[in-house]
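pasting DNA-binding response regulator for the record, 216 residues
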Amino acid sequence: MELEQQITVLLVDDHEMVRIGLAAVLDTEDGIEVVGEASGGEEGVRMAQQYNPDVVLMDLVMDGMDGIEATREVLKNCPDCKVIVLTSYLDDEKMYPVIEAGAFSYLLKTSRANEVADAIRAAVRGQSVLESQVAAKMMDRFRTPPPARALHDDLTDREMEVLRYVAQGKSNQEIADELVIGIKTVKFHVTNLLSKLEVEDRTQAAIYAYKNGLAQ
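structre below
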């Protein structure tokens, strides 16, 4: 189905030949009009305010304001605009921040001309497009989240030993005899491990130890 109105597009890329090539290709597409070309992030933000385009094709790595900050600023001033990242970079330190900044779609510059045009039309319809490699990286990130750090990971080796004896129901004096240390030292370790495990007393510490397999 043909869109009744022209989709206005702003190009933001610090490589002139890239802009010229994109403009030439997109101008041949039905229903798409390139209304401006910016050579950097600052200029892109200004031109977005000036033209209020439907879509901004945004490069990421540029001198001065990069594509991440430019995306944030464009969307602050033109909230109805859709920013489509078009970049050569696939590393996490750029991809995730720009998506968090509000980028609607993420394409690589290896994408074919018709794929870029289709992504522009999809954006206007409210449909995001992620290049296959980008989608795969995002799936991997959310499929295997990093494990949460356990409270007992902060215990020292000695505190872990004391915790095991606490879980066995031994008194401070019995623990001192087992470890051949002073009772004041035992009390010091007990106080520390209760704080680190965020429990109030020895009984709660013992329950924590059993629940986490630390009472052997």
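Residues 205 and 211 are 10 Å apart (CA to CA).
Residues 151-211 form a domain with the Arc Repressor Mutant, subunit A fold (CATH 1.10.10.10).
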